[in-house]
Design brief:
Elements lengths: L11 E3 L4 H8 L6 E2 L6 H7 L8 H18 L5 E11 L2 E3 L5 H11 L3 E12 L2 E14 L4 H11 L20 E5 L2 H5 L3 H10 L6
Parallel strand pairs: 1-2, 1-3
Antiparallel strand pairs: 3-4, 3-5, 5-6, 6-7
């Protein structure tokens, strides 16, 4: 990787255990470490009241801020990137499926319908958020038979459990959709272009 983008600058940390976010950021040529925030995200989502009392975009941003700030408190002058993604259907918020059975149920529920992905990204340093951004994409799944969904899950395997919608549009999951309206990087979990511009503006990388 090239080093000119960060030469002489504060370290960069990705506050995430997500393999996809790590790969997206690696592909930009940046050097960074990863450190999971260690927060109980399920408890935080429950505490925010996921029955329509908090907007999905707000839930995503609160969680992204919490991750970035938690890691940045113990990371000196480093710039810390936190991200979170929330899926919503008619205002109902979903977390990641925890089993292949749950993934099947998720796809059956999304079948033939549109849903939104609310993707938040935050840059923090010294325990304080310096910048936050949330993007929304709308994805419309085509009408699928239960048999097709079963064959898809068998072919895609356990990797779908890393996707909040039980699909991976960067691979076989693209076969499930009629229409996608939104930024590709945001759908994968990290709005790269706004993030890179923010890092330049904050002096974290070369402009």
């Amino acid at each position: 990787m090239s080093t000119f983008l960060q030469e002489g600058r504060a370290p960069l940390i990705l506050a995430s255990a997500s393999v996809t976010r790590r790969r997206l950021l690696e592909n930009t040529g940046l050097t960074f470490s990863t450190e999971a925030a260690g927060l109980d995200e399920a408890a935080m989502r429950t505490a925010m009241g996921l029955e329509g009392t908090v907007e999905p975009s707000d839930v995503a941003e609160v969680l992204a801020r919490a991750k970035a700030e938690a890691v940045s408190v113990r990371s000196g002058a480093a710039f810390v990137i936190g991200g979170d993604q929330v899926m919503a259907v008619d205002g109902k918020i979903y977390g990641k499926p925890q089993s292949m059975e749950a993934a099947r149920a998720r796809l059956l529920e999304l079948n033939g319908r549109s849903h939104q992905l609310h993707t938040a990204v935050v840059v923090a340093t010294g325990g304080e958020t310096k910048w936050a951004y949330t993007d929304v994409a709308t994805l419309t799944m085509r009408k699928l038979t239960p048999a097709f969904i079963g064959r898809y899950l068998a072919a895609a395997g356990q990797g779908v459990l890393g996707s909040i919608g039980a699909y991976q549009i960067e691979s076989l999951g693209i076969q499930l959709f009629d229409n996608i309206d939104g930024d590709f990087f945001s759908i994968l979990g990290l709005p790269l272009l706004p993030l890179l511009e923010a890092l330049r503006r904050e002096g974290a990388i070369e402009g």
